[in-house]
Design goal:
The protein is α/β, with parallel strands linked by helices and 466 residues long. 46% of the residues lie in helices and 12% in strands. Strands 2-1-3-4-6-8 form a six-stranded parallel β-sheet. The chain has a six-stranded parallel β-sheet with strand order 11-10-9-12-13-14, with helices on both faces.
């Protein structure tokens, strides 16, 4: 049986195609050759089938959108050579930089530069009673030299079934298998060198959970943003998931095949950290637009089908600019994703004299939210963060993608082409200013989220040590 996922060419097609692909992936589990492969893999690696099949589905969907395999420099070389080049390179990395063997209760995933301060806001005082290590665990690709023999053994045990699967499913299963094996061996490296009880990561939509499972530890993840049905938000895993959303509103993740063994509602982690030092400020703006224009430009190659700045953000900004004519007595502001964004807007002729453009070096985004009555964006996490602060929110979606803000689909707070108030922007704004949203349906903000997370970590460590 040939297995094909559908590619989409525009944001308008995204909703229909992604749902169809998610359904098609359900059939994958019934393939007899895949079942045989998973059985062999579990025997040789001890990785449970549910983690492997989850990763395979995730890779297939992500590769379809981001075209991962075509970005490989050596994608055309024979599988035998590619497989062992990866293994040998990882062994070499472990040899040239020796990590002393140690035991840690906790590994904190520093998944981007300075995330310890800018995302987690951690200090040494937070871990007085916990032996911890900070490292980019996501990117660890080292393998123990002693695993070279086992890698050869696994190769010969699986090569025939991999060849059949590649042909049977019409996919590059060789590449998928090599990544699974690399995660398995690097997980064994983490286990041998650091022996963690927990890996904590804010990279909830990107941490390689096969690595954590192979390290025989628990994976705790903190949701770092709200997503729709983007491919990299599907088929994720966490033993304990600190969620932005309530369980009631997490159905989108379940539809996307995500598995969270335990779901803890904390709301926005970063908002919680801001609120600790919050001093109430007077309302300064009536309406603020949270920009994502520079993100659309920087990631156009990745986002063009889902969220194109040409078809969405530019039109959304033009729509926002037109509000100043509809409501001349209101005070408007624009908060950019980065300071260079204002320059880009000016270059594209998208600046309005009736809008105050805020400098990120002067304003904190949460200070802006607290000093504004209405927050607008095309698809920003700050929308639900503003809701947690009891602010009015709305979305301007000009992309044609029906799933850009699926969480609020039934609230009628999204200005779309040909849907809801199609010709009357003024009526739309008047509607969202008076529309009441049941906040607790979507988010239950924990304003002491850091301590909540630390308590769960300490509780699990104490349980393991007792």
């Amino acid at each position: 049986m040939s297995f094909n996922l559908i590619k989409f060419s525009s944001p308008k097609e995204y909703s229909k195609v992604i749902n169809q692909n998610l359904n098609n992936l359900k059939e994958l589990e019934e393939n007899k050759y895949l079942k045989e492969y998973l059985k062999v893999l579990k025997k040789e690696t001890t990785i449970d089938e549910k983690y492997s099949i989850l990763y395979i589905k995730r890779h297939l969907l992500t590769n379809l959108e981001y075209n991962l395999e075509s970005n490989l420099k050596f994608s055309k070389i024979p599988f035998f050579l590619y497989y062992f080049l990866r293994i040998l390179l990882s062994i070499f990395q472990s040899l040239i930089k020796y990590d002393k063997k140690n035991n840690y209760n906790l590994l904190i995933d520093d998944w981007y530069n300075n995330s310890i301060k800018s995302f987690y806001s951690f200090s040494d005082d937070d871990f007085k009673d916990i032996k911890f290590k900070i490292m980019n665990a996501s990117q660890i690709n080292k393998i123990l030299f002693r695993d070279l023999y086992k890698s050869i053994f696994i190769y010969f045990k699986t090569r025939k079934i991999i060849k059949i699967l590649s042909k049977e499913l019409n996919i590059n299963f060789k590449f998928i298998h090599s990544i699974i094996i690399l995660n398995f061996f690097t997980g064994r490296y983490l286990k041998y060198k650091f022996n963690p009880k927990i890996i904590l990561s804010g990279n909830d939509n990107g941490f390689p959970y096969l690595k954590a499972k192979s390290a025989n530890c628990k994976l705790f993840t903190i949701q770092n943003g709200i997503r729709g049905k983007e491919s990299d938000a599907n088929f994720t895993y966490a033993d304990l998931y600190f969620s932005f959303l309530t369980k009631e509103s997490s159905y989108i993740r379940e539809e996307g095949g995500c598995i969270n063994e335990k779901h803890i509602e904390i709301g926005s982690y970063r908002l919680s950290e801001f609120y600790k030092n919050y001093i109430k400020t007077p309302i300064k703006f009536d309406v603020t637009y949270i920009g994502t224009y520079s993100n659309s430009i920087e990631n156009e190659c990745l986002l063009k089908h889902f969220f194109s700045h040409k078809t969405n953000e530019v039109e959304s900004i033009k729509t926002f600019n037109s509000l100043t004519k509809e409501f001349p007595n209101l005070k408007f502001s624009y908060f950019p994703r980065n300071n260079n964004e204002i320059f880009e807007l000016e270059k594209s002729g998208l600046i309005s004299d009736n809008i105050e453009y805020l400098d990120r070096n002067t304003y904190n985004i949460y200070n802006v939210i607290t000093s504004t009555n209405l927050i607008l964006s095309s698809c920003s996490t700050t929308g639900i963060e503003a809701l947690a602060l009891n602010k009015k929110i709305g979305f301007i979606n000009q992309s044609g993608n029906e799933d850009l803000n699926p969480l609020f689909f039934n609230e009628e707070i999204e200005f779309k082409k040909n849907i809801y108030f199609p010709d009357d922007l003024k009526s739309f704004i008047e509607h969202i200013l008076t529309h009441s949203i049941r906040i607790e349906k979507y988010i239950k903000q924990d304003f002491d989220a850091k301590n909540t997370i630390l308590n769960y970590i300490k509780e699990y460590i104490n349980e393991k040590e007792s």
